[in-house]
Specification:
- The protein is mainly β.
- The chain is about 5% helix and about 45% strand.
- The chain has four helices and 40 strands.
- The strands form five sheets. The chain has a 31-stranded parallel sheet that branches. A three-stranded antiparallel sheet has the order 15-17-16.
C-alpha cells in the first residue's frame, strides 16, 4: 500500500471552502420562522483513494479501495476521502460518522453494472448509503453515476426507433413490443428469476437513513437505477448547488425525495429527471404517521427542467408536511409545476405551507394541480388498484401560493377531489398563460385573488 498522507490540525475541525456559502441568508424575510439545519462538522484529516490502491482507469474495481480508505478514516475519527480526476468503477459505498466524500473536478464515481454485488439478504442496497450516522458530506465538482440503464425498464412509447434498437443491442427482454427489461443482458448476470421481480429490486443512488447533519454540495448525481437522492427519517440536511440528472423517460427517476425528514435546506440546485423533481413524502398509513412529518423545509432558488412535477408533495405523506417554504424557484419544461398528489391509505395533512415567486414555462399539463385519487402504475402494470379502504385520507389545506408567473401550460389550475380533501388553499397575485383551460376545480377548494388567466385570442 502506498504511503498514506494524512493532514491533522490538532483539536480542529475543518469546513471546506466550498461550504462557505452563507446559508443563513436564505432564511431572511421568510413568511414564518423555519428552523435552519445544523451544519456538518468534519475533522481535518484527509486521505486519497489513490493511497489505498484506487485506480481511475474506468476498468479496475475500486470497491475494496473505497472500503479500506473509509475504514482508515473511521479509525482516525473521520475526515475527508479525496477522489481525483478519473473514472473510479466501484460497488456499494457505505459512509460512517464524520466522513466527507469529496470529488475533485474531473472525477467520476461510476457504479458497476454487475448488479449481483449490490445484493444483501435478497435485496439491493443503495449505491451510496449511511444509516444511523451523523456528520456526513458529499462535496466537490465531480460526478456520481449510478449506471441506471442496466437496471431500468424502458417503455417503447417513450423512445425513438434508434434508442429502441440501442437498448436491444444490450440484449434484454422485450414484452409485447411495449416494454424492454434489462433481463438476460449479454454480459451482465441477472439477480432474479424473471424481469418483473428483478425490476422491483432497483436501488437508489444515494440514501441516508436515520442520519443527522448531512451536506451534499456541488456534485452531479446522474443515471440512478431509481431515485437519486433520498434522505429518509433524517434531521439537519443541506443540499446546495448540486445537479441531478437522468434521461427524461427514466422510469421512477426521481431527483430529490425527502421522506419524514426535518430541518432541510435545498438551495440553488438543478434538477432534470424522469419523474418528480423535488418531492416531499412522509410514508403511508400508521407507519408513516409514526415516523413523523416533513417539517421545517426551505426550498429556494432551484431550477427544475424535465420532471413529472417541479415541486411535489406525495403521493404518500401520512406523516404530514408542515412549516415549509418554497420560493424563488424556476420550472421549465416539467409535466406539471406545483403538484399535490395522494390517495386514501397514503394521505396526510399539510400545515403552514408558503409557495411564492415561482417562474414556469413550457409546462406540458397543469401549472398547479391537486389530485386525491392518485394511482401509482409501475412499469408493466398499467392497471393500478384503487385503495381498498377510506383510511388515511389526504388533506391538502392551508397552502398559500402567490406571485406565480407561468407562460404556456395546458391547464392553469386543476383540483380533483372532495372539499374535505382540498380546502382553504389560496392562489394570489399570479399570471397564467394557458392553451386549453384556466381553472378546473369545484367551488370552495381554492381561493383565487388577483389571478389573471390568459389564452390565445379566439379564432
Amino acid at each position: 500500500m502506498k504511503h498514506i498522507f494524512v493532514t491533522l490540525l490538532a483539536a480542529a475541525l475543518s469546513i471546506s471552502a466550498a461550504w462557505a456559502v452563507d446559508f443563513n441568508a436564505f432564511y431572511k424575510d421568510l413568511p414564518f420562522p423555519v428552523q435552519a439545519p445544523a451544519q456538518v462538522q468534519i475533522p481535518a484529516s484527509s486521505v486519497s483513494i489513490l493511497d489505498f490502491g484506487g485506480n481511475g482507469d474506468g476498468i479496475a474495481d475500486n470497491t475494496e479501495a473505497f472500503a479500506n480508505a473509509l475504514a482508515a478514516l473511521e479509525k482516525m475519527g473521520g475526515g475527508r476521502l479525496n477522489v481525483p480526476r478519473g473514472i473510479f468503477l466501484t460497488g456499494p459505498i457505505v459512509l460512517k460518522d464524520r466522513m466527507e466524500l469529496h470529488l475533485e473536478r474531473g472525477a467520476m464515481i461510476l457504479f458497476t453494472p454487475d448488479r449481483a454485488v449490490y445484493i444483501n439478504k435478497g435485496r439491493a442496497v443503495p449505491c451510496i448509503s449511511a444509516s444511523k450516522r451523523c456528520d456526513i458530506a458529499i462535496t466537490g465538482e465531480g460526478v456520481i453515476d449510478g449506471n441506471g440503464a442496466f437496471w431500468r425498464p424502458v417503455k417503447r412509447s417513450k423512445v425513438s426507433d434508434v434508442e429502441w434498437k440501442d437498448y436491444q443491442r444490450m440484449g434484454g427482454t422485450v414484452i409485447d413490443n411495449k416494454l424492454w427489461y434489462p433481463f438476460e443482458l449479454k454480459h451482465i448476470p441477472d439477480i432474479a428469476g424473471n424481469p418483473k421481480d428483478q425490476e422491483k429490486m432497483r436501488n437508489h443512488l444515494i440514501r441516508f437513513t436515520d442520519c443527522e447533519r448531512i451536506l451534499v454540495e456541488g456534485v452531479t448525481l446522474q443515471n440512478s437505477p431509481k431515485f437519486h437522492l433520498v434522505p429518509q427519517r433524517c434531521k439537519d440536511v443541506t443540499l446546495s448547488g448540486i445537479t441531478v440528472r437522468c434521461p427524461w423517460n427514466a422510469q421512477n427517476g426521481d431527483g430529490i425525495d425527502l421522506m419524514n425528514t426535518s430541518r432541510v435546506l435545498i438551495a440553488r440546485c438543478m434538477v432534470d429527471v424522469g419523474d418528480d423533481g423535488i418531492c416531499l413524502k412522509a410514508g403511508a398509513g400508521q407507519d408513516g404517521f409514526d415516523r413523523g412529518p416533513c417539517e421545517d423545509i426551505l426550498i429556494v432558488e432551484n431550477t427544475v427542467f424535465h420532471a413529472h412535477g417541479g415541486f411535489v408533495i406525495g403521493s404518500e405523506f401520512s406523516g404530514g408536511v408542515k412549516n415549509t417554504v418554497v420560493r424563488g424557484n424556476t420550472f421549465s419544461g416539467t409535466d406539471t409545476g406545483l403538484r399535490f398528489k395522494s390517495a386514501p391509505e397514503r394521505g396526510g395533512k399539510t400545515e403552514n405551507l408558503s409557495i411564492s415567486d415561482i417562474t414556469m414555462n413550457g409546462i406540458r399539463d397543469e401549472a398547479i394541480v391537486f389530485e386525491t385519487s392518485y394511482a401509482d402504475r409501475p412499469a408493466g402494470n398499467e392497471n393500478a388498484q384503487a385503495a381498498k379502504t377510506k383510511n388515511w385520507l389526504p388533506e391538502f389545506a392551508g397552502i398559500d401560493i402567490r406571485n406565480v408567473v407561468c407562460r404556456d401550460c395546458r391547464i392553469a389550475v386543476r383540483a380533483s377531489g372532495s372539499a374535505s380533501e382540498i380546502h382553504d388553499n389560496t392562489i394570489s397575485d399570479s399570471v397564467f398563460f394557458f392553451s386549453e383551460k384556466g381553472l378546473d376545480s369545484a367551488p370552495g377548494m381554492l381561493r383565487l385573488k388577483g389571478v389573471r388567466m390568459v389564452t390565445y385570442p379566439a379564432q
